[in-house]
Amino acid sequence: MSDRTDRHPGTAAPSPTVSDSSTGELVSRLSQEVSELVRNELRLAQTEVSGKAKKAGIGAGLFGAAGIVALYAGGVFIATVILALALVLDAWLAALIVGVVLAIVAAVAALMGKKEVSQAAPPVPTETVESVKRDLEAVKKGSNR
Fold first, then answer.
1. Tell me, what's the pLDDT at 75?
2. Is 17 left (phi over 0), alpha (psi -120 to 50) or beta?
């Protein structure tokens, strides 16, 4: 026998070669293989995205922890400034001075933030809206001719 299964016992019969298959069989096989390829690619994409999402979640948690620790560090530095001033002033006066300076810094930051937010309002792309209006007017004028 010259059949390919003689050389590899236990294997399935070979699929027909391209020259033995009809066009319909080839199209059917192509459709099945493309479907399988798409399913495999989707599974791979899902696995990759879920892995990246997990890493992003861990990273976000670490950023949050860093922010909390930095907040506490800022408090310690403020306490250090108060204690340093307390060496030359009364402790209550040192704390008051540091508190007033911090309040001034906060007020300036709030005013700057308010100014930035008011410049951003309204959140409508006004330049794009005007451009679209001009385009519509041009189309109307062109269609009236």
1. 96
2. beta
Give the per-residue pLDDT at 8. 47
Write out the two tokens for 39: 């399913």
Burial of 15 (0-12, 13-18, 19+ CB in 10 A): exposed
Backbone region of residue 125 per phi and psi (left: phi > 0; alpha: psi in -120 to 50; beta: other values): beta
Residues 98 and 81: beta-carbon distance below 8 Å: yes
Indicate the pTM of the whole model: 0.51
Peptide bond into 122 cis (omega under 30): yes
Amino acid occupying residue 141: K
In degrees, rounded to 5, the angle at the alpha carbon of residue 82 between the alpha carbons of residues 80 and 84 is 70
Token duo for residue 76: 């310690």
